[in-house]
Known about the structure:
By secondary structure, this protein is an alpha+beta fold. The chain has helices spanning about 40-50, 90-100, 105-120, 135-150, 165-185, 195-200, 220-225, 230-235, and strands spanning about 5-15, 15-25, 30-35, 55-60, 65, 75-80, 155-160, 185-190, 205-210, 210-215, 240-250, 250-255, 260-265, 275-280, 285-290, 295-305, 310-315, 320-325, 335-340, 345-350, 355-360. The strands form four sheets. A six-stranded mixed β-sheet has the order 6-7-8-3-9-10, with helices on both faces.
Amino acid sequence: MTEIRLRDVRKSFGSTDVIHGIDLAVASGEFCVFVGPSGCGKSTLLRIIAGLEDVTAGAVEIDGEVVNGTPAADRGLAMVFQSYALYPHMSVYDNMAFGLENAKLPRTEIDVRVRHAAELLQITDYLRRKPKALSGGQRQRVAIGRAIVRDPKAFLFDEPLSNLDAELRVAMRRELSALHAKIGGTMIYVTHDQTEAMTLADKIVVLRDGTVAQTGTPLELYNSPDNAFVAGFIGSPRMNLIEAVAEPGARGTALRAGAARIEVPPLAGLAPGGQVTFGIRPEHIAMGAADESDLTATVAFAEQLGGETYLYVDAEGLPQLTLHQPGQVPVRQGERIGLRFDRAEMHLFDADGRVLANGLVP
Ligand SMILES: Nc1ncnc2c1ncn2[C@@H]1O[C@H](COP(=O)(O)OP(=O)(O)O)[C@@H](O)[C@H]1O
Ligand SMILES: [Mg+2]
């Protein structure tokens, strides 16, 4: 079992600073996902752990040992890339056996390992085929198999499912989860897809511009974002984020946004006139009678999916809001509806996007 730690890791390419001092710990056996928008430094960080890039400053530790000077090949980690990087002229079996042959493992041991990995990944029937005779999903399985046979200290995945179509991605996601449950190794998985992160991770590290925006379990990030960036990035469809001005209100504080004035419980540290952003997820906006509502909005369009309904609504002076309602909601485009925000599910952020409160309850 293997623990991986980064201590104040920094990376510059020439004069461009890409990683700005990252501390994190990946526990033994953990499925840790690095997620963030394209260009935020996910691959660079993974390559630093793998030993494919040097750090500019800071330390990478594997099981308490600093490995900054250890070449990639000697770190005992296995990396799986988006491009499968299989040898086209070799059979699936030979692709998986190749690294072990180079390491001069006995033939019988190689055979046991390849067949075991093939069974785990359900590719035993394809062992004699060449990669070109396989589907994308099967090729990606071979690439993962090649990592498994090495019995690495940890697996590093860089967007391994990005080349697959949507349906296959979902299926492979399940398989990866099952694989992790079976082999129990430490895994670090990079993706820009927050759904992939939410479904796979024990722990998510959200990266933004080369820094850690927040670390936590999927539901910790969903329920208690530390900042407006994480609030907007985690969750699909996105959390509604609305700029507002704090004012004294009848019950403590009021948030003025566009034509709406939303009374909320008293909030410490919220100066009148202060600029804030509040967030509310699509499933936490209720529809109701106008006299009990926080504001009235016009339905711009409705997505009726049968089991659930998405509404996109416009209100004066506000960005378009998304509502997610269970079941079927009989509203038409252009209809006026009342909206009520669940106070316990409202998030409040200061002018710099730092969280002031997750849940506005007295
Ligand atoms: N070898 C390199 N030379 C110069 N800049 C690089 C190099 N590799 C990555 N970068 C830059 O570092 C930033 C982070 O890249 P990367 O780690 O690939 O992001 P991600 O994987 O999150 O999309 C980007 O701005 C990218 O252009
Ligand atoms: Mg990348």
